[in-house]
């Protein structure tokens, strides 16, 4: 079933990239803005 594989792929990407999004939200107040930009780019990349 193709939609099942698509759902599994989206779920896998979400599991892998969710910590990066959480990390970017927690690092918004940090002076290192370069790290936050890379995490935001990594989060928006698969979509």
TrEMBL record:
GO cellular component terms attached to this protein's record: mitochondrial membrane; proton-transporting ATP synthase complex
Keyword Ion transport in record: yes
Single Gene Ontology BP annotation: proton motive force-driven ATP synthesis
Bilayer topology annotation: Single-pass membrane protein
Record localization: Mitochondrion membrane
Record's keyword terms, sorted: ATP synthesis, CF(0), Hydrogen ion transport, Ion transport, Membrane, Mitochondrion, Signal, Transmembrane, Transmembrane helix, Transport
One Pfam family here: ATP-synt_8
Main localization category: mitochondrion
Secretion signal span: 1-24
Gene Ontology molecular function: proton transmembrane transporter activity
Domain of life (superkingdom): Eukaryota
Family: Belongs to the ATPase protein 8 family.
Protein's name according to its UniProt entry: ATP synthase complex subunit 8
Originating organism: Lithobates sylvaticus
